[in-house]
Design a protein that fits this description.
Blueprint: H1 21-24, H2 29-39, H3 50-81, H4 86-117, H5 121-133, E1 136-144, E2 156-165, E3 171-182, E4 185-209, E5 219-221, E6 226-227, H6 233-236, E7 237-240, H7 246-252, H8 255-264, E8 269-281, H9 290-304, H10 307-310, H11 331-334, E9 338-340, H12 342-364
Antiparallel strand pairs: 1-2, 2-3, 3-4, 4-7, 4-8, 5-9, 6-7
Helix pairs in contact: 3-4, 4-12, 8-9
Length: 365
Amino acid sequence: MTSDTRPLNAEPLHTDALDTAPLTARVRGRDVRRFWRRFRDVPGARQPGRGARVAVVTFGALVIPIGLLAMSVGVAQEIEEAAPDMAEQLTGMSVMVLLFLVAGAVLTWASVRMGARRRSRREFFRLARFAAVNGLDFAPGLHDGSHLEPWRERGRVGVIDAMRTRGGRPVEFGNYEIRTSEGHRAQATFGGYAATRVGTALPNIRLESRRVRRVMSEGAVAREQRLSLEGDFDRAFTLTCPQGYETDALYLFTPDVAALLMDAASDFDIELIDDWVFLTSPADVVTLRAERWQNVESALRAVVAKIDQWERWRDDRVARTRLSGPGIVAQAGRRLRIGVGAGTVITGFGIAAFTAMALIVGALG
């Protein structure tokens, strides 16, 4: 999949609402088999890499319970023997039990995420038929997501089961995973998105929905970048913008825009970054749940309806020349400042606790 270079305009997302009937309609086995004979050769349909991931989770699911059982037996034996070095032995075993429990939690979480995204032939049939009925191009399986340019700064981006509009304003729906590694620590973020392009670059403004149950992230937007709007908007979203761009945020999110987003898009986070608009959620977007598609379409319609207004915005901090073009944002407005998030704090605490326990074991030994 590649980035779309077609010119954008204020065309509607769709003439009609999405037809979600193919997601839930009854299907016949022979239709699925006939479909799969053609579809299985489509890149991504066979879900490459799935076997390796399943093998890792299966291996962990076998090893971790055995390890915990062995540690439990060892603890019981140490207590029964009451040897002089019992305290040191129990401390060391406690560290091992803690590691097994953490590994078990991580593998359980990974297993749940993998299971939710694993497609059967029947599910691929439903998604492919849904895409065909609604004029969407369907790219099944895991693909490189580097065409989502602003996200490349956040880690290695993978896009799963992407769908893209053919007519009107180009829009892409998909599920994503962003993998980051820092030192010896790795983290993955999962979710779903809908993305479209704008005809000009915009300041980095983020609206975080208060209705979204979000997974703890490593980074959090610094509090001094929060901006309060009038009315009930703050009950639905937390708006953040770069310092010095408060007036620009008020221009982009006028009361009518705020009211529209509260009504239609409060199930999603919304982010303006460069010349992109993203709607994101920790839950997948490309799914067999009809109500999920209805929610994302409603939210996207609300956003697309205001893009023509946003495209008239210009950054007065940038000196205009004949060569500069309209789509420029001053350096200070291009990215929000990210501080320490809850995920980093908890991870750091866990590492510190483990290090302290290891040092205690070494000192007692």
